[in-house]
Amino acid sequence: MSAATPQSPSPHTVLGSGPAGTELARELVRRGHPVRLVDRKGDGPAIEGVERFAADVSTVEGARAAIGGAAVVHHCVNVAYHLQAEVMPRVQEAVLAAVATTGARLVVLDTLYPYGETGGAVMTEAAPWQATSRKGRMRAELDERYLSAHRAGRARVALGRSADFVGPGVLDSSLGAAVFPGALTGGEVVGLGDIDLPHSYTDIRDVAAGLATLGERPDGDGRVWHLPTAPAVSTREVHTMIEKRVGRPLNVVTLSEPRPFGPFDERFMAEFAEMFYQYTEPQIMDSTAFERTFGAAPTPLADTVDATVTWYEEWLGSR
């Protein structure tokens, strides 16, 4: 994905050190920015050019400490699925209060949850927010608060929405540890819902590059953007790409309803049940607006699959 080079480096703070936050930190370093990567422990493998920092950003005090000195704050925090409805609003409140105090711009990594069930309609930024699930309504309420804070002049905010993550370092997604290890070893591979329906997947590197671009481009503030995402194909087609790359047929176990499988334990699947509609209807995200506005292009899915298989080969070899 291409991106504009910033006129001058500015300090960026990334909240959350999961796959998106970690890849974003690396991307920002590549673009020449000083970067602080924040999580509760402040540890983890060293990343050249990145300062690790420990803070609890669900508190105003922790958020202020974490973002001190930053010109741009990227909110990539996520929590265990069963805690999201409780914790994510607290994180929002603390982070918004902190950036309101410091004046830093805020870029938020977001999901497609606010749209709810679409009946297979293509999701653009103009699609209505009609979520009925608990987590979907929560995400929609958070997003409206972010945008309201921007409109009121309390904060400068941009939202970047992603489809399901896939790519190097991504474990906990529908195309993560429940797919690639089995593909490489001949074990079982999960397929959620109807794998013949088109489904959008966003390369984690495009997530990072898109968020970095929003951090560098204040002209993107005040609205939702769909981060660059390759055209949707069926999950079965993605499986075929993986088969070609690994040189063996996949042993696919299709889950027609949510139940525990591999890394998806009983507690996760119980919480995930209300979101399972994403795999029983076409899930098609359009990122044309971002691509045209910022001169970006998503990574082709075949390239994403190749890079992901290579990463999992190394990951499995190190275990």
Automatic annotation (TrEMBL):
Q: Which domain of life is it from?
A: Bacteria
Q: Which InterPro entries match?
A: Epimerase_deHydtase, NAD(P)-bd_dom_sf
Domain NAD-dependent epimerase/dehydratase stretches: 16-221
Q: Name one Pfam family in it.
A: Epimerase
Protein's name according to its UniProt entry: Epimerase
| Native source organism of the sequence | Streptomyces mutabilis
